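tool_call predict_complex ligand=guanosine-5'-triphosphate
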Amino acid sequence: MNRSSRHQNAGKSAGKGAESESALIVAAHGRHYVVERADHSHLHAFPRGKKSDAAVGDHVRIELAAADQGVITAIEPRKNLLHRSDQFKSKLLAANIDQVIIVLATEPSFSEDLLGRALVSAEALDIRPLVILNKTDLTARLDDARRRLKLYQDLGYDTLELSVNSRPEEALAALQPRTAGVSSIMIGQSGMGKSSMLNLLIPGVEAQTREISAKLDSGKHTTTFTRLYHLPETWAVVDGKPGYLIDSPGFQEFGLHHLSEGMLERAFPEFRERLTDCRFYNCHHINEPGCGVLGAIEGGDISPRRHELYTQLLHESRQQKPW
Ligand SMILES: Nc1nc2c(ncn2[C@@H]2O[C@H](COP(=O)(O)OP(=O)(O)OP(=O)(O)O)[C@@H](O)[C@H]2O)c(=O)[nH]1
Ligand SMILES: [Mg+2]
Ligand SMILES: [Zn+2]
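tool_result ok
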């Protein structure tokens, strides 16, 4: 199946004014976007107004403002939108995602707080997370990493150990079936190996990255903007569905101020079945008597580490949000 099939309804729209066409956002850097047109060519595009509320992975309508520049006039309805937020701003990560791949490494040592937050962000949108521990060739910290990951494995999260650099074939064989036919975003701290995974899955992608980097900025190794890539059609198309892989810049903070209390308590899978045990229907699971969640912590069935994260996220969720 041709990857342009999603553009079948592209072409002239009936809207008044300039002709519009459908396009896919493949890169975003502030108000500056790169979109892919029906013929697979790339075009710079800007939102019409001041706000840039389109994200990588969004299907949009564009109008040509010049031969080499488009204006985004509308965003097609999206399945979901992944974002981060703190008390100052909300930052879009990507839209229409099927899988969040959280990339960790033995070294530099990964932050468990960020892992927990990434899992919560995926759960809140009902997106399947996949946790990858990369750089297993660096054995000094491997046992420590495994020990910290056990809690998440026990919670039922799919975790995969890899060494992209020293055992690339094994890594490829494990990643291909998990990324074919779906749209995945890789997120994680800087230096964990996200772009290395991208290069493994899409041979020759470095050249594409350079081309886009030249358009948007940088020349540095570290990823500076979110970018969507097509996985090879030879193995990544499943029942006509293409595989997309989105690479994103490493982050050090993952604010989730946008999640409501109701979303938060349900984003912890081990809390869910306990919620009906709480004595009060509006229990916050902080210090209420007869709380099902607190009871499960006392009984050793819920990890205090997870409850600490919940408490912190609840605190953030209650902050004022000017955005
Ligand atoms: N030892 C070892 N090093 C690796 C492995 N995978 C990646 N690296 C190295 O880790 C460094 C960082 O890799 P990147 O792929 O750029 O990391 P990233 O997650 O994309 O980082 P940002 O773009 O900054 O977010 C590079 O020097 C890679 O060569 C691995 O399996 N083993
Ligand atoms: Mg990178
Ligand atoms: Zn409770």
